[in-house]
Amino acid sequence: xxxxxxxxxxxxxFGVINVRWYGVVVVLGALAGAWLSSKEAERRGxxxxxxxxxxxxxxxxxxxxxxxxxxxxxPAAGVVTFQYYLDNPWITVSLAGLSFPFPRVLAxxxxxxxxxxxxxxxxLGILLFVRWxxxxxxxxxxxxxxxLLLGQAIGRWGNYFxxxxxxxxxxxxWGIPIDEAHRLPQFIGLSDLTWFHPTFLYESILCLIxxxxxxxxxxxxxxxxxxxxxxxxxxxxxxxxxxxxxFQRPDAWTLSGIPVAQLVSGVLLVGAVAVMVIRRQVLHQxxxxxxxxxxxxxxxxxxxxxxxxxxxxxxxRE
Length: 318
Description:
Layout: E1 8-13, E2 17-20, H1 21-43, H2 49-72, H3 82-87, E3 90-95, E4 98-103, H4 115-132, H5 137-155, H6 157-161, E5 169-170, E6 176-177, E7 195-196, H7 199-220, H8 229-245, E8 254-255, E9 258-259, H9 260-282, H10 292-302
C-alpha cells in the first residue's frame, strides 16, 4: 500500500517558491520520453538531436492542449467544471509578498490536465516542427509515439502525488489511502482506513506494456510497416488502455451516461484501424526501402545466428 503523499517537493523555497511533485513528474516523463524517441531516431538513421529541439514546442503545445481539454470537461460529481471556470475566471496569486489576479484557466496547479488534449497539442507541435525543418511528418510521428507513451506512463504518477485519478473502494492489498480533503463527494464520510483502486497505477503499468509492444512491433516487422503505422498503432493501444481504465474513474466526465474518454477512445481506435486498412487496401501504399542502417538491423533480427566455425589447423607432416 502506498502512503498518503505530500504534494510538494519544496514548500516556500527561498520564501517564495513552491515546487509540486506533479510538475516534477510531468517534466521527468517528458525527458524520459524524449530520450527514448531520440534513441529510436538514431536507430532509424535520423538526427536524434532533432527530438530535443522538437521537445520544447511539443511540450508547450501539449500542456496548452491538456489544460484546455481539462477546462472544457465537466467531471461527474465534481466542483471544478467548465461552468466553474466561466463563473470564476480569475484567481489571486501571491508572489514575494505581492498579490495579483491570474487567469484561472492557466492555473494548472488548480484542477489538472487532460491527456487527450495533451496528445492533440503535442502532435500539433511535432507537425509544426517537422514542417519548419522539412522532415517527414509520418516518420517523425512514429518516432514520437514511443516517447509519448513512455512519458504518459511516468507522468501518471503525478496523479498519485495530487491524490487524484483513483477508483472505487477496494480491499485489494495494492489499494491506496485518500485523505478526506481529496475524496469525491460520494466517498466522504467513509472510514479513514478505506482504500481505493489506484487507477493511475493501472494506466501507468499498461502504458509501459504498451511501450514494449510498440518496440517489438517496430523492430520485428519494420520492413513491412509504412511510415505512420507506429503512430496508428499507438492510437490503438492507448485508447484501449484508456477505455478499460475508465471503468475505475468514478469522477469521469460523461455524456448520456457514457464516459467521454471512452467515446473519444472508440473514435480514435476505429479511425486508426481504418487508416491502416485504407492505406494498404485502397491506396495500395507499400513500405519504402529501409535505409542501410535499418536494413542491416532488420537482417540481423530476422536471420538466426550463424555459428562461427573455427579453422582446423593443418597437421604437420612427419
